[in-house]
Amino acid sequence: MEVKEIKKKVEKTFCADNGKRFSVGTDISFVLADTGDKCIGTIRKIKKKCIIIDSIEINGKPLPMRDLYAKVPYLEIQPNSCAYVYCD
User: Fold this and answer.
1) What percent of the chain has pLDDT over 70?
2) What is the C-alpha separation between 20 and 7, in angstroms, rounded?
């Protein structure tokens, strides 16, 4: 009898209120509820109450430090503002 080892990889997915799904490594854009700033970033971690993003742009301007990251609580994201980011 041969014994096989099974490895499972669990990947978290962020499901936005507008039905779009995002996973680690994908680019996301959204609007901050408090300030109205438009943010773009790459998702590095998905947690229960927040996402962690890097390569951040705010209102079309990249942050000066490319290795900077931000912790964005889900409650700070304006409803129905999450979108996919495409590059040509």
Assistant:
1) 97
2) 28
Domain ranges for the chain: 13-84
- pLDDT category, 88, cuts 50, 70, 90? low
* Domain covering 13-84, topology: SH3 type barrels. (2.30.30)
Alpha carbons 14 and 50: distance in angstroms, whole number = 9
Q: Cβ of 26: how many Cβ atoms within 10 Å?
A: 13
Examine the pLDDT at 80 and tell me if it is beyond 70.
yes
Do 16 and 83 touch, CB atoms closer than 8 A? no
**Per-residue CA distances from 2 to 5, 7, 53 (Å):** 10, 16, 44
